[in-house]
Task: inverse folding
């Protein structure tokens, strides 16, 4: 099925690929590549028009910085025969134009069945986020990488990068008016909070528990495709976006992990529910614009998710 793809890879890499298996079609197309040497790899074909070539290269450069400047484990990016981390197909394919190959990490993600295990894993995610942010703050190289931003307009504005929340078919007109009001309140909070260097910089941008892979002796953070410049505490929203209950307990677990590495001010703590809400609303837009994706198909009871999001926002802005 993927014979042409395998020929393309073997023409650009010295890995002796013999088989490709489709793993996931979501934002990007992800395949497992098996080789004659019994060393598996991950092939990621980047969706068209999402990143420039310089942005793709910056992703791999940040992964290198993380690997050398922190104790966070990240997949290895495999260089092609030209010594490049990002490759281009010789002809346009239905999947995309650019692709990269990563080491295959064999393990399980941090999604959990019990609340107690979930809290433990979310605490680990908070700790990892704090390490990433310290790396961002302390590195001149990171601040100069060309990547896009995750500002208000990119997530909840008139033309957000992932699609507009108002297009979701489950939303009533009354609910749309409520969420529109919530978005206005979020923007006001963000404008007051600002983008100081201790609050805003390079972030992973998709720090949910499925992007952590646990092996017998290491914990890896994978999938840097959405890394860009944003508020550090937006990462908390990324970790907690999909959980409806017990949201407050899970938030405290993330904070506990984060503050074990990096301090948070009272204002930072006050903003965490805002960033959780921001990410939850952005996810409604993503689900509307990606309804045919494997990820969207795996989500059940999105009606409850919307109800909890509206209740969370109502409580937050009534209290403030």
Result:
């Amino acid at each position: 099925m993927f014979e042409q793809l395998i020929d393309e890879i073997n023409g650009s890499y010295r890995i002796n690929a013999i088989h490709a298996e489709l793993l996931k079609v979501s934002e990007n197309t992800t395949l497992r590549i098996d080789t004659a040497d019994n060393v598996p790899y991950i092939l990621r074909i980047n969706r068209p028009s999402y990143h420039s070539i310089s942005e793709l290269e910056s992703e791999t450069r940040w992964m290198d910085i993380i690997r050398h400047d922190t104790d966070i484990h990240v997949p290895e990016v495999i260089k092609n025969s030209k010594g490049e981390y990002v490759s281009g197909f010789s002809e346009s394919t239905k999947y995309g134009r650019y692709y990269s190959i990563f080491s295959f990490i064999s393990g399980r993600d941090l999604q959990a069945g019990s609340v107690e295990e979930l809290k433990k894993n979310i605490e680990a995610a908070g700790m990892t986020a704090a390490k990433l942010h310290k790396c961002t703050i302390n590195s001149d190289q990171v601040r100069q990488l060309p990547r896009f931003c995750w500002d208000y307009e990119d997530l909840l504005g008139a033309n957000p990068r992932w699609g507009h929340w108002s297009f979701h078919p489950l939303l009533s007109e009354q609910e749309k008016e409520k969420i529109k009001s919530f978005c206005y309140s979020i923007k006001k909070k963000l404008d007051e909070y600002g983008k100081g260097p201790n609050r805003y910089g390079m972030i992973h941008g998709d720090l949910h528990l499925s992007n952590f892979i646990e092996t017998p002796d290491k914990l890896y953070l994978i999938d840097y495709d959405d890394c860009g410049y944003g508020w550090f505490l937006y990462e908390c929203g990324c970790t907690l976006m999909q959980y409806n209950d017990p949201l407050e307990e899970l938030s405290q677990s993330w904070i506990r992990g984060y503050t074990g590495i990096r301090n948070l001010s009272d204002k930072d703590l006050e903003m965490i529910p805002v960033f959780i809400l921001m990410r939850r609303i952005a996810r409604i837009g993503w689900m509307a614009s990606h309804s045919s994706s494997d990820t969207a198909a795996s989500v059940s009871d999105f009606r409850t998710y919307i109800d909890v999001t509206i209740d969370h926002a109502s409580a937050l802005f009534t209290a403030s």
